[in-house]
Amino acid sequence: MERLDPKKLTVEFSPDVTKTEPIIGRKYTVTHSDQTAELYLSIGLEYAYEKITSMRDEVLAEWRTNKEETILFVSVLVGGEYNPIITSVRNEVFRRELPLALEAIRYGDRELFAAHPELDNAPIIVNFEAPNTDYDQLENWGIGKDYK
Fold first, then answer.
1. Domain of residue 138, residue span
2. How many separate domains does the chain show?
3. Peptide bond into 22 cis (omega under 30)
């Protein structure tokens, strides 16, 4: 993979989490700058809604449990409008750029993964949200170590 340039990643931890705890309920907000190509990762118990712009091109992720299994549940908004052309383009962009966002989460929260190595084998489930059922999909995107 190795698309991530760590020098272009800024990581911010909120006061309600440490670098290794908690796991369940830990949330990630990944945003970026089109001008500088920098990525911003906020880690906390709430999403960093104040960092979300009107473009709605953020990636939101959260550690959850599903039948005793820990999963990283990721959400992206590919279509908030009923315009199939815009939804199609956004879907394409998210699918192309999502591996970079997942790398940012894996790298930016690497101390959590080091303290809890089982998270490298946790499934990553991605919810592509759209009003159009052709794009409204729930997909398995591998495991944490795929983005190491």
1. 6-147
2. 1
3. yes
